[in-house]
Design goal:
By secondary structure, this protein is α+β, with helices and mostly antiparallel strands. The chain contains four helices and four strands; from the N terminus they run βαββαβαα.
Length: 135
């Protein structure tokens, strides 16, 4: 499960911010990164070890954990009452069996490309007069 890691860092300018984000982005498992320069907070979301993230940052910057926890799930909207849906005449027709449908698609593809990819050509050096063999 993805974790949300929030760290406080002492970063002075955009150049140092870019370098810090590049250092953290090299770690595997990161899905999202952002940095708030006013609050001096970096947020990392993903399947990554929080200790590795802070160790990577502490090599050059002063970094401390603020919070580590599960990624917040978006709140679901209240369930709405379902109204009876109007059905179209086209939708009421039963679908064909999936095997038949796939068979028809294969036949259409064979008509479009009759050779498929079952034929391969191999060039033999002895038959090609333009090839150069040093021996």
């Amino acid at each position: 499960m993805a974790e949300k890691i929030v760290m406080k860092m002492d970063v002075a300018n955009d150049n140092k911010k870019r370098k810090a984000m590049m250092a953290v982005s090299m770690l595997p498992g990161i899905n999202f990164m952002s940095m708030d320069m006013k609050a001096k907070k970096m947020t990392v979301i993903g399947m990554v070890d929080p200790v590795m993230v802070v160790d990577k940052l502490r090599k050059r910057w002063n970094a401390h954990f603020i919070s580590v926890g599960p990624k917040e799930e978006p709140k679901k909207a209240e369930t709405k009452k379902e109204e009876p849906k109007k059905t179209d005449a086209k939708k009421e027709q039963p679908r064909k069996d999936s095997a038949e449908h796939i068979g028809q698609l294969v036949k259409l593809y064979q008509a479009y490309n009759p050779q498929l990819t079952t034929h391969y050509s191999v060039i033999v050096r002895e038959e090609d007069p333009n090839s150069c063999v040093i021996g």
